[in-house]
């Protein structure tokens, strides 16, 4: 996976930590946990072989070696981005290759189904770039939007997407469900009310990451239902934790078949999440044109492509 990217995501995290002045501020800006930030910085220092950051209760500061590393990394990342942009410009003179990111929870398969029926558009060819849904891999993927990945498709209601250097193209709204372990008696129900969840524990992304999930959290807390924070957005490990600990989670219609031990059960009220394409503000004209083409066709075919 590392070979797919021009530079390690830990370098971008290092830059953000230095600019923010603390792990906690950098974590807020990058929408990942402070623990994840610290692990990355420890790993980076181990990889480089020297101490880069002075740590204190007031925050972090650069060592002498760290200052040299910081200035050098800034130059390196700028040059790497320039090389990639120039390379892509040259490539666009021939058939236009569109690189679509795909993962278990952010699968490109719905768009591939649409594209398979668009045989008349021979100016484009598609390359799929796989990534994982864990926090570090997601961070790396976001860093590489507009370079190694043109776009990905998935849920879009996050502060990171809304306030980051990204654009979106909404394809549809996907329903929210309760993800219930198949060993839990509630999995036999067709629909769950908040009263059904009174004695359960529900995993939800921590407050402030997704406005729509914050609304759902408000309803859960108003009904005195125990909510357990997930520090980051979901990956396969979140499903594992729910299955192993008999927790209930919020899940999406597009994930109903993602993990067999967790069954999607309807909510008693309609909650939805915007679903669509996320791409860089620096996207080329060719990428933007492709998104408009495939997006319009997806909307036309939507009843046959979406569930829930």
UniProtKB/TrEMBL annotation:
InterPro entries associated with the record: HTH-type_LysR_regulators, LysR_HTH_N, WH-like_DNA-bd_sf, WH_DNA-bd_sf
Record keyword Membrane present: no
HTH lysR-type domain sequence ranges: 11-63
Top-rank lineage group of the source organism: Bacteria
UniProt keyword terms in alphabetical order: DNA-binding, Transcription, Transcription regulation
GO molecular function term, any single one: DNA-binding transcription factor activity
Pfam family, one: HTH_1
GO terms for cellular component: cytosol
Record has Transcription as a keyword: yes
Entry's family note: Belongs to the LysR transcriptional regulatory family.
Protein name: LysR family transcriptional regulator
Source organism (scientific name): Levilactobacillus suantsaii
